[in-house]
Amino acid sequence: MSNLTETAAGFRISVHAPKRLLYGPGPSQVHPRIYQAMAQPVVGHLDPYFFQISQQVQKGLRTVFGTVNELTLPISATGSGGMETAVSNFIEPGTKLALFVSGFFAERIGEMARRHGAEIVRLEKPWGESFTPEEQVDFIRRERPQVVAFVQAETSTGVFQRSRALCEAAHEVGAIVIADCVTSLGAMPVNIDENGIDVAYSCTQKGLSAPPGLSPVTVSPLALERLKQRKSPNRSWYFDLSLIADYLSESHRYHHTASATLFYALHEALALIDEESLDLRQQRHKIAHDRFVTGIERLGLKMLVAPGQRIWNLNTVLVPEGVNEAKVRAYLLEKHGIEIAGGFGPLAGKIFRIGIMGPLASDDGVDRFLAKFDEAMKETA
Amino acid sequence: MSNLTETAAGFRISVHAPKRLLYGPGPSQVHPRIYQAMAQPVVGHLDPYFFQISQQVQKGLRTVFGTVNELTLPISATGSGGMETAVSNFIEPGTKLALFVSGFFAERIGEMARRHGAEIVRLEKPWGESFTPEEQVDFIRRERPQVVAFVQAETSTGVFQRSRALCEAAHEVGAIVIADCVTSLGAMPVNIDENGIDVAYSCTQKGLSAPPGLSPVTVSPLALERLKQRKSPNRSWYFDLSLIADYLSESHRYHHTASATLFYALHEALALIDEESLDLRQQRHKIAHDRFVTGIERLGLKMLVAPGQRIWNLNTVLVPEGVNEAKVRAYLLEKHGIEIAGGFGPLAGKIFRIGIMGPLASDDGVDRFLAKFDEAMKETA
Questions:
Q1: Is A268 in contact with B211 (Cβ distance < 8 A)?
Q2: What percent of chain B has pLDDT over 90?
Q3: Which chain B residues contact residue A270 at CB under 8 A?
Q4: Chain B partners of A48 at a C-beta cutoff of 8 Å?
Q5: What's the mean pLDDT in B95-111?
Q6: Are B11 and A39 a contacting pair at CB < 8 A?
Q7: What pLDDT does residue B11 have?
Q8: Interface pTM (ipTM) of the complex?
Q9: Which domains are seen in chain B, by residue range?
Q10: DSSP character for B305?
Q11: Which of A76, A112, A235 is closest, CB to CB, to B115?
């Protein structure tokens, strides 16, 4: 395991990271061209070239989000920073938030919203289930909140939550809708505009297959109007969208020192998607998902989530009787350098979380994984 | 300027960034070995190898901060995110903050502290000046605050603020001290423990010469005690130090998806410092600074800041009569790919901000810059 050698001074020499095959919920496998992009020289955060890159990144993000929202940009933080951006800008003390909860990341939205002063009402279901259009509409009509939040792709359970009815009902009562698209963006149709989602955030290290570090965010004109009507300033300065948008898109007035390196990586990830086409990339993830499910069922295993409600690029497989999931994961990592994840919360010990994303979303990528996974279960039995 | 070519689909091809010489206040020039480190394969944020790297990074940061603080780690955001980490964890509604203000970044601390509920008292001086030990002590004894904040290296003015008396007075009245070390860390002696600073934050892209994206933070046992005594939760979830420390240092319980790539870069930056030795690196910056000042004065120019109060790695030079500073900067960037910065706020149009840091802090680095700078002033006259 140890690839670090201490120097005489007790410190260490250069990084020699092990080559992993990242079949977990993220970070996902990074395309070689993205590493090359990060070798490009750093330019200043106010350099004209940086703003060219930034503008192209914003354009590419609009495509993958499926939106024409002008305010679409990356936040200089990981996906959870994107979540705090969405929450902190659209919640102020006393804002009534209706939250759909059936997994870990919905709970996290609630935790952040509480810190930003929200009055929260919740509709709950067991982890692994999704909400029907009727449940969505009834809850929103009954509660008449100012903001509705839900998780489109719940990384803790593998559920993809449809949201057309939710967004319609929200707009009917004058609410805006926040969606967590951390796992879906780049691998599944997110369709911000078609669904009617107002605010969405994601990350760079799952469906986009770039390294972690930035969080794409998009904001509808309706949400932007709300932002301008806030009575109190955002409790967070770092995540204040009006300052960030002014820096990245408008006056280019300094806000923070954005990382050219991470922008290059995201730029290259978006260029790769553009070359393949978003539609074909999404289809590729669907095909890999179907092949994975067929293979898993052939091994006698079962999926946690009902068909039609599954995230394509993150599969949750029930741990069968007699299998020690921690041992299987350790075997895969140590023997084959393959990373997968287990469940947590109420699903701890009960599921494997297996990502088939980016460069690994191929026939070979699926078949290679299934063979090693089968071996791991047998060897650790 | 345009290095981006649009594809038929209206998008663009791979990144081909121009090679800049970064003589601004940051980002600074990145060492080639750091680019190599970022080409190392991404591993998961819960991978045992990631925690090895993280542990070494924490060790290296203790050295450059000059501290034995156990809680010393990088935040997954830029330097301003480090500032919000310091402010949000140690300010809660009603906390009395004594703030020393003589530049832009002190104002920013105030702006953040206000959003986190502080009652702020300020001691102000014109931009470019520093506070004497007597002024520090008088202010703190008079105000008896719970938290004192100051900027050790004020990037907007070039002033290095000494703080031994400040810290003693603060502890005398039971306050903890927050210091902004964004520009000093890695290039000047920060000496957290020797000075008695309780909480400090920095960035990766100035004195450490890595790309932007992480923010090193250190917290004394006294400050940690205060953190545990908070009456209300941190208004920010993303910057909540107790959660971050638990993830990076203690239980390794998931908080956010840290960027292996940025940790590799920081690790390599710290390894380079270890190889050179921190003392020699700091001396190298001092020698380059002295050579720069001599050269500037030989050109007939003057420094904004009085001798003995200057940041070694960030020089602020007064714009002489008849020189158009914006034209000089544009000439340097367009003709020689050299980035420097101007002043802002009350110093807009009045100073150049010139960083001599990292790989550029050498005789050659200084002489090459001075020749081009002289040329630029003559050519744009």
A1: no
A2: 95
A3: 11
A4: 1
A5: 98
A6: no
A7: 55
A8: 0.96
A9: 21-28+277-379 (3.90.1150.10), 32-273 (3.40.640.10)
A10: S
A11: A235
Beta bridge partners of A177: A148
pLDDT value at residue B265: 98
The full 3-state SS of chain A, as one line of letters, equals CCCCCCCCCCCCCCCCCCCCEECCCCCCCCCHHHHHHHCCCCCCCCCHHHHHHHHHHHHHHHHHHCCCCCEEEEECECHHHHHHHHHHHHCCCCCEEEEEECCHHHHHHHHHHHHCCCEEEEEECCCCCCCCHHHHHHHHHHHCCCEEEEECEECCCCEECCCHHHHHHHHHCCCEEEEECCCCECCECCCHHHHCCCEEECCCCCCCCCCCCCEEEEECHHHHHHHHCCCCCCCCCCCCHHHHHHHHCCCCCCCCCCCHHHHHHHHHHHHHHHHHCHHHHHHHHHHHHHHHHHHHHHCCCCECCCCCCECCCEEEEECCCCCCHHHHHHHHHHHHCEECEECCHHHCCCEEEEECCHHHCCHHHHHHHHHHHHHHHHHCC
**Which segments of B32-175 are extended strands (E)?**
71-75, 96-101, 119-124, 147-151, 153-154, 159-160
Would you tell me which residues 84-103 of chain A have a C-beta closer than 8 angstroms to some C-beta of chain B?
Answer: 84, 88
Report pLDDT digits (tens) over A274-303.
Answer: 999 999 999 999 999 999 999 999 999 999
Q: Is the CB of A38 less than 8 angstroms away from the CB of B42? A: no
